Amino acid sequence: MKRKNKKDSPPEWVLQITTLRERIGINQAELARRLECSAMTISRWERGLLQPSAEHFIQLGNLGNQKEAWFFWEMAGIQPAKMVEALGGSSRRRKLATSMSFDTAEQERPALRGKKISGVIPLPMLKTVAGTHGTPGDRRNSLRSIPTSEIIGVPAAWCPNPNYTSLVPVAGHSMQPAIRDHDIIAVDFYQTERRRLYGQIVMVTMEKNGLSVSRLRQYDSVDVLEAEDRQFEPIILKKSGGWRIIGKVLWSISGTP
């Protein structure tokens, strides 16, 4: 087993599991009973020594509220777009779409709530930083659990899926001129299906580099992340690499005066 650097912060899912267990008021033994595993397994999860399986992430999601549920379900590999498509045009689809939207942002936009501004929609700016290709970003597994710092109004035409779109500051120079250091990007986390994103700029989460922004390409069935600046080495994406697509980068705006 690979030793963990003591200075490394634990994966985000560690805190999410502990927070969920404490919020619903149960100990590790009771959580183990509900998930049909051992208390030792729960202990190892909460110490970051063992990552839950996809099945256990789904079970954890079933125990949580809306925000917690979708964090764990995304860790299990469930895609919002696939779920909505599977439900078709039913009332369940509309209900699910509402529950999957960024409810944290909805709670933190009182100045805009209830106001109809023609052609403008409010998007949450998240309290996190994504690194461009080769620059480490914050270690986050999902955008859903990140608090909002402010709400920014943008043209509705810029966002095909506004309930699934958030704004994130970026750091690094490797994606210039498309994305510059300190720019703010809009990330659509409804769009995560890999085959539809080849050639597009995406945000991924990686065990080593945290949130990262690169261009996704495929060469002879091999998935690769590339920088716009070709001085930066491409990253070959392996199944064992601990990476996942967070969403498609729609556009960027300057984050500096």
Give the SSE map.
Blueprint: H1 12-23, H2 28-35, H3 39-46, H4 54-63, H5 66-75, H6 80-87, H7 91-100, H8 103-107, E1 120-126, E2 130-132, E3 148-155, E4 165-171, E5 184-188, E6 201-206, E7 210-219, E8 222-226, E9 235-236, E10 243-253
Helix pairs in contact: 2-3, 4-5, 6-7
CATH top level label of the largest domain? Mainly Beta
Q: Can you name the CATH architecture of the largest domain?
A: Ribbon
- Rg, nearest Å: 19 Å
The unreliable regions are 1-6, 90-116
Determine the fraction of residues in helical runs and give it as a percent range. 25-40%
Structural class: alpha+beta
The topology string of helices and strands comes to HHHHHHHHEEEEEEEEEE
Number of separate helices: 8
**Strand adjacency order, main sheet:** 2-4-5-10-6-7
Could you give the distance between the termini? Answer: 47 Å
CATH fold node name of the largest domain: Umud Fragment, subunit A
The coarse silhouette is globular
Could you tell me the number of beta strands?
A: 10
Describe this structure in words.
Helices cover 28% and strands 25% of the residues. The chain folds into two domains: 12-78, Orthogonal Bundle (434 Repressor (Amino-terminal Domain)); 111-253, Ribbon (Umud Fragment, subunit A). With 257 residues, it is of the alpha+beta class. The longest helix has 12 residues, at 12-23. It has a six-stranded mixed β-barrel. The chain has a two-stranded antiparallel sheet with strand order 1-3.
